[in-house]
Amino acid sequence: MMNNQEHREAAETVSHLIKGIEIAMLITVTEEGPVSRPMKMQEVEFAENPLFPDKSDTDKYGHLQQHPEVKARAARD
């Protein structure tokens, strides 16, 4: 398990790697299995957790409430 400093360094590395990427795939889990969907990245200077803003009245939000573990995929052109 990472300590706080290791976690912050890893988060900074990921933040640097994904900087400038506008769209990423957010993968959530439903009762039927995994669901992938494109999401627009929110531009932030540094975030320990990339942000995918969304409304609380969506299916995706419900999926996250039931299964908060997610995966995200991002790639450059």
Automatic annotation (TrEMBL):
Residues 54-77 have a biased composition (Basic and acidic residues). Pfam families: Pyrid_ox_like (PF16242). Residues 48-77 are annotated as: Disordered. Residues 9-72 form the General stress protein FMN-binding split barrel domain. This is General stress protein FMN-binding split barrel domain-containing protein. It comes from Paenibacillus apis. The lineage of its organism: Bacteria, Bacillati, Bacillota, Bacilli, Bacillales.
